[in-house]
Specification:
This protein is α+β, with helices and mostly antiparallel strands. The chain has helices at 13-24, 65-74, 77-86, 106-119, 225-231, 250-263, 279-289, 294-302, 358-374; strands spanning 5-9, 28-33, 53-54, 91-93, 98-101, 123-126, 130-133, 138-141, 146-148, 151-154, 170-176, 180-182, 194-203, 206-218, 221-223, 239-243, 304-311, 319-324, 342-344. It contains nine helices and 19 strands.
């Protein structure tokens, strides 16, 4: 019997996981990659360390919990770590549950995937820019080359419209997990400073969600993990309320500020806050407070407000929201409901998750799932 031929468009995290899985199930696999080598984006993840999963991975971490649930149930964090362990990669969880390679090098993740592809006989064609899918399972490149398979897996990442060519509806694209541009007057002079804080996203005065973590001030607004997570929900016109001392109640903070006035009666203006925060933050708080009374300062310290204008720097976005409409794919197999030979994985689908390894987990887990079902294997 001839082997089932699987064509995979995209040699990123999802595509490599799909290729390894399908090939190890006995399929003939051809991996098509537009760049000159596979997996380049993997090297950039986790600040070069590759935060490949999270111990707390769950459907609720994604924009479409019902769709992601079947894949995550079959490939939770432990299963994904076992997949990598079987291919020689040692991993560990940090204090916050984020999973990294023991080497703390993203290159180690890519190396084991590339080696697994080689060992299982995956044919890799780099410089193959797939621009069209034909109804007979043919992937066509911009330069006219074609490859035909019994099944095709689209894993071309965020921003791709390749599935639209196959008749699928594409949800609008936008950068998420990114810095936020805000009104700049309140953050004047703060660029480069980091603070531990709690940030609440407000819409029309109502709180939507709160995140705690590190915030980085930029000349155009704010960045940092806490902001990246909130960027998934923020819209222009929303307000960020920054609490610089989230472990104190307002009454407790006012009391401490009154005590400070008693102990330091000669201090006023910026000198009144000396020792509390960086001097530049002290100046910004005083500007926001409009005076140095304890009540005004307490409000500015625990409700320092910035108005969201949009994505601050799309080049820093970790994920692209949008992609193929989920209603047109089976959430168990990731097979197209329009074409039985077509599958999708990773950001080619309209899935995005929180910071902390959730997006890479989805890329790997969905790639494994698509690879198994495309090759005819059972989960």
């Amino acid at each position: 019997m001839s082997r089932r031929h699987i064509v995979i468009a995209g040699g990123g995290a999802a595509g490599l996981a799909a290729a390894v899985t399908a090939a190890e199930l006995g399929a003939q696999v051809t991996l098509l990659e537009r760049a000159d080598r596979v997996g380049k984006k993997i090297l950039q993840t986790g600040n070069g360390r590759c935060n490949l999963s999270n111990a707390a991975v769950a459907p609720e971490a994604y924009n479409a919990p019902d769709f992601t649930a079947p894949v995550l149930a079959q490939i939770p964090c432990e299963e994904l770590r076992a997949f990598f362990s079987a291919h020689g990669l040692f991993t560990y969880p940090d204090a916050e549950g984020r999973i990294y390679p023991v080497s703390d090098a993203a290159s180690g993740v890519l190396d084991v995937l590339r080696l697994a592809c080689e060992e299982s006989g995956v044919q890799t064609l780099c410089g193959f820019d797939t621009v069209q899918l034909r109804t007979d399972g043919t992937a066509a490149a911009a330069d006219g080359r074609t490859v035909t398979g019994d099944a095709v897996i689209v894993a071309t990442g965020g921003g791709t419209r390749l599935l639209q060519n196959a008749g699928h509806r594409i949800m609008p694209f936008s950068p998420v997990l990114c810095p936020l541009k805000t009104d700049t007057a309140p953050v004047r002079g703060l660029s480069g400073l980091r603070v531990k804080c709690a940030v609440t996203l407000l819409r029309k005065g109502a709180p939507l969600r709160t995140q705690r973590g590190e915030l980085l001030f930029r000349d155009y607004g704010v960045s940092g993990i806490v902001i990246f997570d909130l960027s998934r929900h923020a819209q222009p016109g929303d307000v960020l309320s920054i609490n610089l001392l989230p472990d104190l109640s307002r009454d407790e903070l006012c009391k401490l500020l009154y005590q400070r006035k008693t102990y330091h009666p000669l201090r006023a203006g910026e000198t009144f806050l000396t020792g509390m925060f960086h001097s530049r933050i002290n100046a910004a708080v005083l500007r926001a407070a409009g005076g140095d009374t304890p009540e005004r300062l307490a409000r500015a310290i625990q409700d320092f407000r910035l108005t969201v204008q949009g994505c601050g720097d799309s080049k820093q976005a970790q994920v692209t929201r949008g992609g193929a409409a989920l209603s047109e794919f089976d959430p168990v197999t990731l097979c197209s409901r329009l074409h039985p030979w077509l599958f999708a994985a990773g950001e080619a689908l309209d899935i995005d998750g929180a910071c902390g390894g959730y997006n890479l987990h989805w890329a790997f887990a969905s790639g494994i799932t698509a690879g198994r079902y495309a090759a005819g294997g059972a989960l």
